[in-house]
Amino acid sequence: MRRRFRALTAALLALPLTLTVAPSAHAADPTTMTSGFYVDPNSSAKQWVAANPADGRAPAINASLANTPMARWFGAWSGTIGTATGAYVGAADNADKLPVLVAYNIYLRDSCGGHSGGGATSPSAYATWIAQFAGGIANRPAAVILEPDSLADYGCLNQTQIRERQGMISGALAEFNRQAPNTWVYLDAGNPGWISAAAMAQRLHEAGLRQAHGFSLNISNYFTTAQNTAYGNSVNSELSARYGYTKPFVVDTSRNGNGANGEWCNAAGRRIGTPTRLGGGAEMLLWIKAPGESDGNCGVGAGSSAGQFLPEVAYKMIYGY
């Protein structure tokens, strides 16, 4: 895992001299404190394979999905959140692996898209929840993706709600800095087909990006790694020009093997992408959205609910049809 330093040094030397990488909010590098990424023993794919060993699709799903490191999502369904995050990162720490967690419980979550609506009941309730989330991690190594879509999903919010959201994100980052010194937090920045790089750079900065380790791209979407890398570099160019700093970024490659076809919700004909790894045009390529889990009642997941595991969709995604 320490080879990351050589790759990162080369990448920094290749940046234009006008770009200044803002210092990380944390001194520690969790990738050097662990020996690879954590495989969730209770992922939806693993649970389905265990429950359906005789199914003809089980061998492929087991080999291609169930044993690939991917993120675990946490929200209201997770129960007492500090206990839940503590148990998850504790298990990963015992295995000497790096866990990736997604915090997905912001007030007015997915209020514009609607398929994953919900979240905390108020900004103050969210502040309590995210403080407990960070406290559960404590000083163990982890990577956290903070509130997917929260900064891109402004379309139906008024200015008061936008300012509330920015305050919730900034407050969350402060809690991680205070309570989880060995956690890299990535503030979500949507995807290349959603918000312009200039607008996203402003939204990230206004939500407190300086406090975060970096930003995340393509969560639950299908854009290629090359498209995301170009977009991430454009966001960083805007950050540098406007605010004088840049940040590392990660890309969700879980479903981008065939690229995007213009649909975002359970698009047909998509394919799994490069498994979780360091580097690859970004700081890390991560499986954040679990392949085979529905985006909601739409597309090839018609009749399903967000997060439901669909074995036929998972199977087809392995082969790209």
UniProtKB/TrEMBL annotation:
Signal peptide start-end: 1-27
EC annotation from Swiss-Prot or TrEMBL: 3.2.1.-
Catalytic residues (positions): D149
Pfam families from the UniProt entry: Glyco_hydro_6
Tagged with keyword ATP-binding: no
InterPro entries to which the protein is assigned, alphabetical: Beta_cellobiohydrolase, Beta_cellobiohydrolase_sf, Glyco_hydro_6_CS
Domain of life: Bacteria
SUPFAM superfamilies in the cross-refs: Glycosyl hydrolases family 6, cellulases
Keyword Ribonucleoprotein: no
Gene3D superfamilies: 1, 4-beta cellobiohydrolase
MF-aspect GO terms: hydrolase activity
Keywords noted in UniProt: Carbohydrate metabolism, Cellulose degradation, Disulfide bond, Glycosidase, Hydrolase, Polysaccharide degradation, Signal
Record family assignment: Belongs to the glycosyl hydrolase family 6.
Protein name stated in the entry: Glucanase
Lineage: Bacteria, Bacillati, Actinomycetota, Actinomycetes, Kitasatosporales
